[in-house]
Specification:
Shape: globular
Strand content: under 5%
Length: 161
């Protein structure tokens, strides 16, 4: 049920004409993903999903939507006449991601491997991995979010001046 609602709300994100409705549907989708994390036996990831994505990122999105004239920007096509190259790059990136995901040893391949992830000390292993192996990508993501916030403020301020 949660997966069906998550996919349906993700479709509403793409289909909705109003950016506010899209953002609200994205919130619903992210909450459903958090519910799936709970069903998978990972309440820590569910809480992080709610705090980071639903809390922080969606507040940032709603802030940007209210500060900028999104409807005017939506009327202008971003890449005119470049639909085919864009789709080719999208398919290539999707295939690359799938190949990397299937060939990775970090993700459990079977249910028995999943039991190791859920076992004793899984939270400690997750936090150690996050802040040792993935510290740089974690910090890069936070800087990207900060730059997006500053950029939204600069764009909104330049239109007001």
């Amino acid at each position: 049920f949660f997966a069906v609602v998550a996919v349906a709300s993700a479709l509403v994100v793409v289909i909705a004409r109003s950016p506010v409705h899209s953002a609200l549907a994205l919130i619903v989708s992210l909450v459903q993903v958090a519910a799936l994390f709970i069903l998978l036996g990972s309440p820590f990831l569910a809480v992080i999903q709610i705090f980071v994505y639903v809390g922080a990122v969606m507040v940032l999105f709603l802030f940007v939507i209210t500060m900028l004239d999104v409807r005017k920007a939506a009327r202008v096509r971003f890449l005119r006449g470049r639909t085919v190259p864009t789709l080719v790059v999208l398919v290539l990136l999707g295939a690359e991601m799938l190949i990397l995901l299937l060939g990775s040893e970090r993700f459990p391949a079977s249910a028995t491997d999943m039991e190791v992830v859920r076992g004793e000390g899984a939270l400690e292993r997750l936090s150690t991995t996050l802040f040792t192996d993935y510290l740089f990508p974690f910090e890069v993501a936070s800087v990207i979010l900060l730059v997006a916030l500053v950029g939204a403020i600069v764009l909104a301020r330049s239109k007001a001046d």
